[in-house]
């Protein structure tokens, strides 16, 4: 309980001076992570949080479920339609190439021949989240179309990677540290994805239709609609678990099915679920601060630093630049899209789930994936969090259109 009090007090203190702190790139995730480090460091920390219990794992999954539902529904209106070709390049070409690049880098740095585990490293560390540079989306020095594309890409890639993560984790569990294959986890993963899709469709599509019709018929109010929307990711998660599927994948599918109906609902209908998701994620950023203190105790593998640095740069930048060849975008736009690959909440959650899944069968691999996750996100907080301001200023000068116009109609 003390962890709850301290983390919320930290959030409240940040909220009081957020406008001033943002000048130094101290965003809410940075503040919460710093508080988590300070309050959990040392032999007798003020706060301790256990993340290895089944209840903690379930709580982490629920947070991911709400975030994935929000990501699936929060695409700016018209962005997907206007820039569908550009988004296809980023999500269907650049994203698979990024995972492949992560696998190759992992194979070079950790040459054990255990490709399932190396693939798991890649998928945990390539999920993009704008939280470390969230203020960039509000920066008018960037054109609105580019900010919209970044919002959609970072929102959807986490959900696209969710079934891939589940499959790679199952493969790593199946082979364990002995190298002896077992097909049971892989079969369970495929079943989990199937039933998750079923649960998501059953909740998202009817839920959206009923809310839209109730609103148009005048049977409900905006506040009730917001509560109804918040219920959908939780219901999808629960149904997914009851069907022996993945709850967070079910929530993402529910969000995709619900999104078309959301446009007919009252203004700000999604605000509540977005705010709840933001609050839950900030609490997890506080917990991440404790993970930072734990990552540097015991046996720390120095290759983790190299992997994280390459993951944030080469692994992200080169695939995106390749995918954007022939897109018609100017060089400044291509470089900005390639550089802006922050790692945040999805990497933390996938890393925690991978740690808990691997710990019983391969403790060394579990520790390694935990270190990789922690180092990648920590370096991203510094690298992307501290550079988004100068990057936006340089982009505006180079592109020569600080007013945010879109003369090329890219996409």
UniProtKB/TrEMBL annotation:
What is the protein name stated in its UniProt record? Cation:proton antiporter
Cell compartments where the protein resides:
Cell membrane
Query: Cation/H+ exchanger transmembrane domain: from which residue to which, for each copy?
Result: 10-392
Organism superkingdom: Bacteria
Q: Which UniProt keywords apply?
A: Antiport, Ion transport, Membrane, Transmembrane, Transmembrane helix, Transport
Membrane-topology descriptor: Multi-pass membrane protein
* Major place of residence: membrane
Q: Name one Pfam family in it.
A: Na_H_Exchanger
Against InterPro entries, the record matches this protein to: Cation/H_exchanger_TM (IPR006153)
TM helices/strands, residue ranges: 59-75, 87-109, 115-137, 149-172, 192-211, 223-242, 304-324, 336-356, 368-391
